Amino acid sequence: MNVKELLKSNALKFLAGGFIIGAVFVGFANLMLHVSGTKTFCGTCHSMKHEARTFAASSHRELDCVECHLPHDNFPHYLIEKGRTGMVDMYHEMMRDYPERIKLDKDSRKMVSENCLRCHESTMSYVETAPGGSQNDCLKCHSRIAHGSNHLEGGIEID
Hints:
Elements: H1 3-9, H2 11-35, H3 39-42, H4 49-56, H5 65-69, H6 75-95, H7 106-119, H8 121-124, H9 139-142
């Protein structure tokens, strides 16, 4: 029996097998995408111990890290940014060169503020900013909510 006859007589089996393998791959990839964004996963790195500890005591502790630290405007942007930040985090974890207190860069601050506004959109209609202020920079006033102001606290509770 040659390959052509084998494919012709078993085409449905090969198609079904390929579908099953594809479904398992997509399911596994989806599971890994979810698991790698949880606070448990993110807190396993030595560099993130402080962030994980303070976040666990914060008013936002029920959320996963990706809710604030990744974009949610579209899925391709989410995946690209997840890959980019994951590689940066892995590099610095391996090099052991993270600073004692991790700071957000300008782009990350903008993304976190956009996510604040995404979740708290209904509240923002009642918020007035100080003259010259902006509703687009939530971290200007609320930077200590999720991770506290020092290693002893996990942010502030908001009524």
